[in-house]
Amino acid sequence: MPGFFTSIFQWISGLFFSKQAEIAVVGLQASGKTSFVNVITSGQWSEDVVPTVAFNFRKIRKGNVTMKIWDVAGQPKFRSMWERYCNGVDAIVFVVDSVDHDKFNTARFELHQLLGQPTLVGVPLLVLGNKNDLDGHVPVKELIRNLQLDKISDRPVSCYSCSMKSQHNLDIVLQWLAGRSH
Ligand SMILES: Nc1nc2c(ncn2[C@@H]2O[C@H](COP(=O)(O)OP(=O)(O)O)[C@@H](O)[C@H]2O)c(=O)[nH]1
Ligand SMILES: [Mg+2]
């Protein structure tokens, strides 16, 4: 019987306290977007990820927060689609491979191009410097400088160094995302 009352209570509290957040995950190809979605969805890291064609959609529940996640492909031909998926979301997550120094310029260009879209003004931005389990990854400070995040003034911006593989900092990232729910 106590189990019954507990589940009724959970159901009722869910009605009053359940919240939603819709997020779009973008960034260059192979930065770790799909790995991020897989890890936060299942808590499992897997080395084998199939490159994303166009997009994946996932819906997950973390505590009383339901998250709808658009995982959008990062190859050049798909980048013009990013705006469409980011339009109307509660947060944009921009994933960067923090070891791949040669691609920082392209990542910066694509990020600022995206944020320049009039439809996306004010949408909060979370930048993830991924793969910090690998030697040669840049620390957050350098990532902020390389991506010129200090130039963004029309929205809340956060930046974390993290690793999908070791799950480093993912607790903070999830907290940040939950904070965007309503
Ligand atoms: N070492 C390491 N490799 C990662 C990490 N995250 C993703 N990868 C690898 O990077 C490659 C691209 O990952 P994927 O999630 O497909 O990137 P996407 O193209 O942005 O969706 C895969 O081989 C992943 O196993 C990480 O935190 N550490
Ligand atoms: Mg992918």
UniProtKB/TrEMBL annotation:
Mg(2+) binds at residues 34, 52. The keyword Repressor does not apply. GO terms for molecular function: GTP binding; GTPase activity; metal ion binding. Keywords: GTP-binding, Magnesium, Metal-binding, Nucleotide-binding. GTP binds at residues 27-34, 74, 130-133. InterPro entries: Arl8a/8b (IPR044154), P-loop_NTPase (IPR027417), Small_GTP-bd (IPR005225), Small_GTPase_ARF/SAR (IPR006689). GO terms for biological process: protein transport. CDD domains: Arl10_like. It comes from the Eukaryota. SMART domains: ARF, RAB, RAS, SAR. GO terms for cellular component: lytic vacuole membrane. NCBIfam families: small_GTP. Belongs to the small GTPase superfamily. Arf family. This is Arl8a protein.
